[in-house]
Amino acid sequence: MLLSHSMKLILPTLLLAPFLLLAQSSAPVIVIEQTRKVDVAISPIAGSEGAAMTKVLQNDLERSGACRIVDPATAAFTLSGTITPSGLAGRAIPKSGGAPLVESSFNGDARRATHQFADAFIQALTGTPGFASSRITFASASAGKNRKKEIYLSDIDGENARQLTQDGALGYGPKFSPDGNKIAYSSDKSGYRDTYVIDLTSKKRSIVAQFPGQNTGAAFSPDGSTLALSLSKFGNPEICTIPSSGGEPTRLTNARGTDCSPTWSPDGTQIAYVSDERGSPSIYLLPATGGSPERINTESSYSTEPDWSPDGKKIAYSISSGGGQIGVYDLDSKKSRVVSRGSGLESPSWTRNSRHLVCSQNGTLVLLDSLTGEAIKVPNNLSRNTEPNTTR
């Protein structure tokens, strides 16, 4: 594959290997080695909110794991922008002075447009989606007492946190729909464990599973049409599917123990879930239409809360032994590894790039880099935060 003149100048400057250059009709995409960082400078963004948005952009790029903010004299790329009435006009110029890697307008309020600019740059730089514009839903007991928890929503950097429910009950397990416009969660609001869906656009809420017993752990299918969840209407909690608007369940498992915490493969053909049928909780794979489950070897005696990565290659999970760690199972190699440091980590949720995970750690939300083990706090001025889930 031939390199453009501008790319021939960029590659020696970056001093990062290995590289792949992907041909595109517009600016080239540079795919860098995942653990290497590119030196990037940010010129002050112009406009009334420019100073604040410059800081937002810097934080977004640093959290990506792909960039290091440096002085313009040594930077491989310099990013600049102007706040406009409709959003932000941004550019990313290589040190060589060649064609911009990114040159586009991003619509929305200044903060959202800046997040989109960061995502566009990361996509062009690495070939994987950025996640700065993602959101988190989570449960928090900050506004309640005792066992009461409400459902919240925030940007992935912790800003714009807002309370979605006023149930005065125990709410848990919120999960986004694929388009990010709905959230399924469970609550004891009625006195029983029922499953609800919140429409973030209409701000309406509906009960979609109110069968006898527990109705928990609902997760949207990749096309948004179906929910997988754990129902105990058959006796032991079993993995079932129902239409996402509610309806009669289809039973997928028939175990002697408890089956819970389903998560879909990105292509919608499989479901991973937790079962204690053989004693301690383990993770199993099951065809989404039902069939024989297959236990995966996570090399942990207590594996829970699986989450399938957007690229379909990995399953993250919580490890209760060892004080609370996060593990990742590679579906191709069939090998597992612990990706976290410290203790008290649980409830992993992959971001769009299939590298970072949002988790809870002793009541605080953190962004965990599964390649380096680095965990960065996601500040939201709330406490006792649990069960985060991110938009894809």
Outline the fold blueprint:
Layout: H1 5-14, E1 20-22, E2 29-31, E3 38-42, H2 50-63, E4 67-69, E5 77-84, E6 87-94, E7 102-107, H3 110-126, E8 135-140, E9 150-155, E10 162-163, E11 171-176, E12 182-187, E13 194-199, E14 204-209, E15 215-220, E16 226-231, E17 238-243, E18 250-251, E19 259-264, E20 270-275, E21 282-287, E22 294-295, E23 303-308, E24 314-319, E25 325-330, E26 335-338, E27 345-350, E28 356-361, E29 364-369, E30 375-377, E31 385-390
Parallel strand pairs: 3-4, 3-5
Antiparallel strand pairs: 1-2, 5-6, 6-7, 8-9, 8-31, 9-10, 11-12, 12-13, 13-14, 15-16, 16-17, 17-18, 19-20, 20-21, 21-22, 23-24, 24-25, 25-26, 27-28, 28-29, 29-30
Helix pairs in contact: 2-3
